[in-house]
Design a protein that fits this description.
The complex is a heterodimer of chains A (523) and B (354). Chain A has 523 residues and is α/β, with parallel strands linked by helices. Chain A contains 17 helices and 24 strands. Chain A folds into 2 domains: 6-245, P-loop containing nucleotide triphosphate hydrolases (Rossmann fold); 261-344 and 429-506, P-loop containing nucleotide triphosphate hydrolases (Rossmann fold, 3-Layer(aba) Sandwich). Helix content of chain A is 31%, strand content 26%. In chain A, helix 4 packs across helix 5 (151-164). Chain A is globular and about 70 Å long. Chain B has a single domain, classed as ABC transporter involved in vitamin B12 uptake, BtuC. Chain B has helices at 6-16, 20-27, 29-44, 51-76, 84-100, 116-139, 145-162, 185-188, 196-214, 216-226, 228-233, 238-264, 275-285, 297-316, 321-353, and strands spanning 103-105, 110-112, 190-191, 194-195. A two-stranded antiparallel ribbon of chain B has the order 1-2. Chain B has a two-stranded antiparallel sheet with strand order 3-4. In chain B, a hairpin with a 2-residue loop joins strand 3 (190-191) and strand 4 (194-195). Chain B is globular and about 70 Å long. The chains are: A alpha/beta (523), B mainly alpha (354). At the A-B interface, strand 1, helix 10, helix 11 and strand 20 of A face helix 1, helix 10, helix 11 and helix 15 of B. Bound molecules: adenosine-5'-triphosphate (ATP) and magnesium ion (MG). Magnesium ion (MG) binds at residues 51-52, 94, 173, 412-413 of chain A. Adenosine-5'-triphosphate (ATP) is lined by residues 22-23, 25, 27, 45, 47-53, 94, 400, 410-415, 440, 442 of chain A.
Chain lengths: 523, 354
């Protein structure tokens, strides 16, 4: 693909000396940011660096404390997303913004329904929706309720929604965090198409490989300040990491671990697990595998392969599933979630907003939610004991907040994810189920999480782990199972695995013209 | 007034960011409103701020406040209980039945009489039972709380009327030969010069507030109201928590019923009608969110006191009954509007400093 030549692009939108203060935090400190048309303008920075805040200002969600915006050279002030949309600015929010009770097409057209004499034209909406989804290579039925969609599919709907409005400037705040390589490729093709039509795209992601694949200009934020900006053609990943973190971060790597002596002991054994699908067929079919103490086992698969459902079965969320699940010496049947947690099974769910966090509670109370019993002395919760664990977790995972008493919603997306991980670690599990644990987490924190995974595995914890990021798949786990349409279609040990083999076993459903992005930057 | 434990989760961040005063004032608005009302009525009516009147006022408030304490738990989980008024009536009628007729045992053709403490215990158990019925409908049969408790509202009221064919149980003083005298003391007696009713309110509120902010159960109530599915995945027995809050609510309503019957020295089957609305109003005035997950017991007590002061003060000023309703309604609406403004105001205060 071609990298853009700077002189070829015109400036459309400029943020000039923009600052944003929240109670207790200066989220943006006199930031300059330029958006070029017909180009992908990448924004990158650590969790909490201020990326989403800057985007919310551009999209009219938040107002800057000081500074101004220039659209086509003249100052503008957006008082609402409506005004920004009117000026041709669209945004895909980091946290999904869909109505679960409405179907896909209704979500896409919400507030701008296609009407004739005041009556919504459902047919017409569904047709447009079907075309959009086809462009994204996701043949979903437009009348499916959003509630019934998986995380990644919802993200696709969110993207389709943004595409359905004809915008000049399209902001994408981590659009691919729940997508696998194949879906990401489809999105990139659309992005290139939009670029060719002169649309300016602002692209945020923590998947660094992606940035250099699609990006034309890269801007790095650090602690709310502008750290650097450069054309993508002139930089590489280590430049980005250096500018955003300011220190060396180890790339994800496999660690040879020596596990305490009885390491061959199987802690989790699954035999013939099947999950029937509503309306015939199976979401999971005859899945069998075993997990040893101290082992990190990854599950690779495309969207809809049944990875999340597998985890849900293990937590007992699908009573209709059949098959055997043995945890230690115990066969799990009707145990409640609490009992499973007490037996040492714990899930970090994929969808942190809906399943991971209680938005109305503070950071502290979210961290300890699954463990309250442990802090009880006589009848009540000892704040001292509780604070000890909270502080330890905030330190270990580097959770960025001024005080743990702040509401969880005031944290940046990545830091919220760390809180969910912290909650599960506090339950001291024997088998940890991580469903996309690094979704939306910056490089530094990813390295920290992998470090913790390795450390826990060394202490004997078994980890089952799903990630849609290939580099992680290839380096972190000891063993990889490939799941395709609910069946296990491949097994690889760490030293034997290759990208091609994984993708082949996963059986991409539709032909992709480009191979899965293997384009690592050449340093 | 709007968070689980005001000290830990509401005040601290405000203080940390140095905006304590404005935000704090706003958070304490129900309390401030209470003092302002007390001030106004004290000036307008010389008989308002007298010991005698204040005791009457708090006594009246206590009845509503006790119910509202239970209601707060239900609303914190994101539910609602419309059946409390009927539970009040049912518990009142049961105490009347037990005192005047005893518990009839048809096969033996006799009736068993209980002493007063036992009657109170049985009355409270009845409340728990009604709550358990609501809880069962909501958790096992997936009925929306509004509908389930609306049904119970009719059922419990009907049972209250059936218990004595729609007639009142009069003169609940008991007979010394049956060993069941003393029931009126509950409503009329006092300890250290303060009515027992007020002591009961303080006890209920203190225990409920402690449980809400300091125990795992309380924390879980907030979590269930905040995000039920996340709470479930964190190992919280969501159904048990819901069951428990409806039972607590039923218990509080039954306590109110017993007190009311004792104060009237009679049990009338219509007693407690529309009480559920007063209880909900107190909870909302106290800053608890009807969507669940946010609120406090102390807020509710303040809310109940605001309603109590308003009612009492307007009566003293000779304001017509109908106007009283209009004013009370407006105050409730104002409270909710202010609640919605809170977020935005906080943001603006923050911006001004920048
Ligand atoms: N409503 C808010 N109230 C208080 N602080 C906030 C609020 N929103 C954001 N912040 C703070 O502003 C800072 C920047 O947050 P922002 O969401 O922009 O980060 P980000 O760069 O998007 O991070 P991530 O990669 O994790 O999404 C963070 O420290 C965050 O805690
Ligand atoms: Mg963000």
């Amino acid at each position: 693909m071609q990298q853009a030549r700077p002189e070829a692009h015109r400036t459309v939108l400029v943020a000039e000396q923009v600052s944003k203060r929240f109670p207790g935090t200066l989220a943006l400190d006199r930031v300059d940011f330029t958006v070029y048309d017909g180009a992908v303008n990448v924004l990158i920075g650590e969790n909490g660096a201020g990326k989403s805040t800057l985007m919310k200002i551009l999209a009219g969600v938040e107002r800057p404390t000081s500074g101004r915006l220039l659209l086509d050279g003249s100052p503008v002030e957006f008082k609402s997303t409506r005004e920004a949309a009117h000026a041709g600015i669209g945004i895909i929010f980091q946290e999904l913004n869909l109505y679960p009770n409405l179907d896909i097409s209704e979500n896409i057209f919400v507030t701008r329904e296609m009407t004739r004499t005041g009556v919504v034209q459902h047919r017409a909406q569904e047709k447009v929706t079907r075309d959009l989804l086809a462009r994204l290579e996701q043949p979903l039925e437009p009348t499916t309720l959003v509630r019934d969609l998986r995380m990644g599919q919802q993200q696709i709907v969110e993207i389709a929604k943004a595409l359905s409005r004809n915008v000049r400037i399209l902001i994408m705040d981590e659009p691919t965090s729940a997508l696998t390589a194949a879906e990401t490729e489809a999105l990139f093709r659309i992005i290139r198409d939009l670029k060719a039509h002169g649309v300016a795209i602002i692209y945020i992601s923590h998947k660094l490989e992606e940035l250099l694949t699609v990006g034309d200009y890269v801007t790095v934020l650090r602690d709310g300040r502008l750290a650097a900006t450069a054309p993508a053609a002139s930089i590489n990943i280590s430049w980005i990491i250096d500018k955003m973190v300011g220190r060396n971060v180890n790339a994800p790597h496999h660690r040879a671990r020596t596990v305490a002596d009885d390491s061959d002991q199987t802690v989790l054994e699954i035999k013939n697990l099947s999950l029937p699908r509503l309306g015939g067929g199976f979401t999971l079919e005859g899945v069998s595998f075993a997990l040893k103490r101290g082992e990190i086992l990854a599950i690779f698969g495309l969207m809809g392969a049944g990875r999340t459902e597998l985890f849900e079965c293990l937590m007992g969320l699908h009573p209709e599933a059949s098959g055997q699940i043995r945890l230690g010496t115990r066969n799990l049947r009707h145990e409640a979630i609490r009992q499973r947690i007490d037996l040492g099974l714990m899930l970090v769910p994929e969808d942190r907003q809906r399943l991971g966090l209680v938005q109305k509670l503070s950071v502290a109370h979210n961290i300890t939610l699954a463990n309250l019993k442990r802090f009880v002395t006589s009848f009540w919760i000892s704040e001292r004991l509780e604070m000890e664990d909270i502080r330890a977790m905030m330190r270990d995972l580097a959770i960025k907040t001024r005080t743990p008493q702040h509401p969880i919603t005031s944290l940046s997306g990545g830091n919220q994810q760390k809180v969910v991980v912290a909650k599960s670690l506090l339950t001291r599990p024997k088998v940890l189920l991580l469903d996309e644990p690094t979704r939306g987490i910056d490089v530094g924190a990813k390295a920290e999480i992998f470090e913790i995974m390795n450390r826990l595995a060394e202490q004997g914890l078994a980890i089952l782990f799903v990630s849609s990021e290939l580099p992680e798949m290839l380096t972190i786990p000891d063993r990889i199972l490939v799941l395709s349409k609910g069946k296990i279609t491949g097994e690889f040990s760490h030293d034997k695995v290759t990208e091609e083999a994984l993708v082949l076993a996963a059986g991409a459903r539709q032909q992709t013209e480009h191979p899965v992005p293997a384009n690592r930057p050449n340093n | 007034m709007t968070t689980s434990s005001p000290v830990a989760s509401a005040v601290a961040p405000a203080r940390a960011s140095g905006l304590s005063f404005g935000v704090l004032l706003f958070r304490l608005r129900a309390l401030i409103a209470l003092f302002v009302l007390i001030g106004i009525f004290s000036i307008l009516s010389p008989s308002f701020f007298t010991r005698a009147n204040l005791i009457i006022l708090v006594g009246q408030t206590a009845i509503n406040a006790i119910m509202a304490v239970g209601m707060t738990y239900v609303i914190l989980t994101g539910g609602i209980d419309l059946s409390v008024g009927s539970t009040v009536g049912l518990a009142a009628m049961m105490s009347g039945l037990l005192i005047n007729r005893g518990l009839p045992i048809p096969p033996l053709g006799v009736a068993v009489y209980f002493n007063v403490p036992m009657i109170i215990v049985l009355g409270l158990c009845l409340g728990l039972l009604v709550g358990a019925f609501n809880g069962l409908l909501i958790t096992r049969f997936n009925v929306a709380p509004f509908i389930a408790t609306l049904g119970t509202l009719y059922v419990a009221r009907g049972l209250a009327q059936l218990s004595n064919d729609g007639a009142t149980f009069p003169n609940l003083v008991g007979k010394s030969e049956l060993g069941n005298t003393g029931f009126p003391t509950l409503g009329a007696g006092s300890i250290l010069g303060i009515p027992i009713v007020i002591w009961i309110m303080v006890l209920f509120a203190a225990v409920a507030a402690f449980v809400a902010s300091k125990t795992p159960f309380g924390r879980q109530v907030f979590a269930v109201g905040g995000n039920e599915r996340a709470a479930e995945l964190s190992g919280i027995y969501v159904n048990r928590i819901k069951m428990a809050v409806y039972m607590i609510c039923g218990l509080c309503a039954a306590m109110t019923g017993l007190i009311t019957a004792s104060q009237l020295v009679a049990a009338h089957p219509a007693v407690g009608e529309s009480y559920e609305l007063n209880a909900i109003a107190a909870v909302v005035l106290g800053g608890t969110s009807l969507a669940g997950g946010r609120g406090s017991i102390w807020g509710t007590i303040v809310g109940a006191l605001v309603i109590g002061v308003l009612t009492n003060g307007l009566v003293l000023l000779g304001v017509q009954e109908f106007w009283k309703k209009v004013i009370t309604g407006l105050v409730i609406i104002l409270a909710v509007v202010l609640d919605q403004l809170q977020e935005r105001l906080q943001q603006r205060l923050a911006l001004k400093r920048a």
